[in-house]
Amino acid sequence: MLDRAPQETKDQSVEATRPVAFRGAGFTSGGSRHAGWIALALVIAVWQLAGSSGWVNPLFLPAPSAIAIAIYKLAMSGALWLHLSWSIMRIGTGWIIGTAAGVIVGFAIGLSTMARGVGITFISALFPIPKIALLPLLILWLGIGEEPKIATIALGVFFSTAISVYSGVDAVPRNLIRMAQSFNVPFHAIVRRVIWPGALPSILAGFRITSSVALLLVVSAEMIGAQYGIGAFVLQAGNLMQTDQLLAGVVILSLFGLVVGKLINLLEVRLLHWR
Amino acid sequence: MDLIADHISHRFGALDVLDDVSFQVSSGEVVAIVGPSGCGKSTLLSILGGLLRPSAGAAELRGAPPAGSLNPLTFVFQDFALLPWNTVEENVAFPLLHAALSAGERRAVIDDALRRTGLTDFRAAYPKQLSGGMRQRVGIARALAVRPAILLMDEPLSALDSQTRELLMEDFVGLLADGAMGAVYVTHNLEEAVRLADRVVVLSRRPGRIREIVTIPMTRAERGTADARAPMAVLQGELWSLIRKEAIDAEREVQHA
């Protein structure tokens, strides 16, 4: 028979007890959701104070209110939408072309040993080249127009995408592929139902990087040769020493990056809800 | 349908893993494979299931699979191998997606597999929401859905805690009770081998050779009774005595590797 008891309470008749000291504080991940926004608001407040009180020359660093006014005027005049729409067109087209090519090549490298042998060598050799350095060559090849700018963005996006896709394919647990094979699931179905969803976290992480790369490259390309676009606008403002306009352009770029980041977050929530 | 290991040998590069292994799993029979760590048990199972080509010898089938079997040799994996982005129901449906079944038939097969494994109420859950035992039940339901002739079970309980292991072992006994399915059951655990198998193939340390094939002299139903505990403990002891020295040597070998 088992010797059973419902509960044991401490014996008060003997020596007094003391609590065990808590030693598990700190070293935990996570934090306040609002801390970042509060810090940003503080920085802007200090910046505004420095501008309004004349501590900083507004030519060197315009106050946030001056930047906000510049953005408002740009929006009202229609110039903001003109520049933004050109930049979005270039980013969108370049990103789609680069992503499509990168996904195809990345999957080919991930799935075929022959494509891996050839592809990785080329990617390793070409990936480190600053793509903006190729713009003059691309202008020579594709003419003066939108094509070389779009091609520069597509090139920059392509390499990062291809790398993130084949890394994602490599990261799909082999046991899942073996499982599918053990049920005689056809190759195309293994790619669609096992490898694609398994590689998706890495592919979406790649999208996050390539959206920044595209933003970086569109500004550089527009600074080199464009009449319209946020990059061209920032360059013109800089040349005319209109630093409030210049920083307005920078803020718009930052907001654009933020919006794209949020869109990718939404995509992750929707597609990677199983994680 | 019988599954035959015919003089199977295998090597990975310069490493001999299996050496001339031959045995047969008859229809409805459960054969356990035990042996020291690294003796090639899982490799042997992969060869038997057609996931690995042996260096010599062959895995062969004799006789027709049972009517309606969609995948006569079906694996149950140690790590469950569930698709984390699919629900329980979708995981069970996964091997049926390309089978020649009508939507109604597919639904009936899935419902039956979920019912037999007690997963009906969990069909919409994702693997991350389930305990280890429930995940393995999904793996078993998925295997049952294709109506296998022989289950190839690669240490299916080794990733689970002892209480869950006990519960799932009872489930296995129930599933194998009618003799409709055979199984090759790879395990480290001699208690599982003695509880479930009709015969136990004992492999030597690497390269794995058959040391002995031990027949368990009781029906599975008898082994569930209190009277069977003592003779089963004796059988376990005998199996352990066959493996013990080599298990110690294999463990030292692994530690030095």
Characterize the structure shown.
Helix content of chain A is 73%, strand content 0%. The relative contact order of chain A is 0.11. Chain A is flat and about 90 Å long. By secondary structure, chain A is mostly helical. Chain B has 257 residues and is an alpha/beta fold. Chain B has helices at residues 41-48, 88-93, 103-116, 132-145, 162-176, 190-196, 220-223, 229-256; strands spanning 2-12, 15-25, 30-34, 56-62, 73-76, 150-154, 182-186, 199-203, 210-215. In chain B, the strands form 2 sheets. Chain B has a 6-stranded mixed sheet with strand order 5-6-7-3-8-9, with helices on both faces. A 3-stranded antiparallel sheet of chain B has the order 2-1-4. In chain B, helix 3 (103-116) packs across helix 4 (132-145) and helix 6 (190-196) packs across helix 8. The model of chain B has no long low-confidence stretch (mean pLDDT 90).
Global outline of chain A: flat
Briefly note the structural class of the backbone of chain B: alpha/beta
Work out the largest interface and the residue count of each chain. A-B, 20 and 21 residues
Tell me, rounded to a whole number, the average pLDDT of chain A.
90
Helix coverage percent of residues of chain B? 25-40%
What distinguishing features does this structure have?
heterodimer; A: 275 residues; mainly alpha; 73% helix; 0% strand; B: alpha/beta; six-stranded mixed β-sheet; three-stranded antiparallel β-sheet; 23% strand
List the helices and strands and how they pair.
The complex is a heterodimer of chains A (275) and B (257).
Chain A (H helix, E strand, L loop, with lengths): L34 H18 L11 H14 L1 H33 L1 H14 L8 H8 L3 H26 L2 H9 L4 H39 L4 H10 L3 H29 L4
Helix pairs in contact in A: 2-10, 3-4, 3-6, 3-8, 3-9, 5-6, 6-8, 7-8, 8-9, 8-10, 9-10
Chain B lengths: L1 E11 L2 E11 L4 E5 L6 H8 L7 E7 L10 E4 L11 H6 L9 H14 L15 H14 L4 E5 L7 H15 L5 E5 L3 H7 L2 E5 L6 E6 L4 H4 L5 H28 L1
Helix pairs in contact in B: 3-4, 6-8
